[in-house]
From TrEMBL:
Keyword DNA damage recorded: no
Family recorded in the similarity comment: Belongs to the SdhE FAD assembly factor family.
Domain of life: Bacteria
Protein name in the entry: FAD assembly factor SdhE
Keywords assigned: Chaperone, Cytoplasm
Organism name: Limnobacter humi
Subcellular location: Cytoplasm
Major subcellular site: cytoplasm
Length: 90
């Protein structure tokens, strides 16, 4: 993870976990494993990147997480790419 300040607000992390709940089981499994491993290490940039990712429709999100599509537009940032890679690695 980044060397930035840890995102220490438990309420904000809880809201993010709630928003992470998806309609596709595959997304849920990937995101759940990610949170189980990294939730306590998330930075503000990570939370912002996750917030952008969770605005995507399920099928597009799954394509990003499986590497079938590359981040484009607002998602084409180092923070989003880093979070996607972390999700792929868990």
């Amino acid at each position: 993870m980044s060397h930035q300040q840890h995102q220490s607000d438990p309420a904000q992390r809880a809201r993010l976990r709630w928003r992470a709940r998806r309609g596709l089981l595959e997304n849920d499994l990937i995101i759940q494993r990610f949170f189980d491993k990294y939730e306590m290490e998330l930075t503000d940039d990570d939370v912002a990147a996750l917030t952008l990712l969770f605005e995507e429709i399920d099928n597009k999100l799954l394509d990003l997480l499986l590497g079938r599509a590359a981040p484009e537009g607002d998602l084409d940032t180092p923070a989003v790419r880093r979070v996607i890679q972390l999700m792929k690695d868990v």
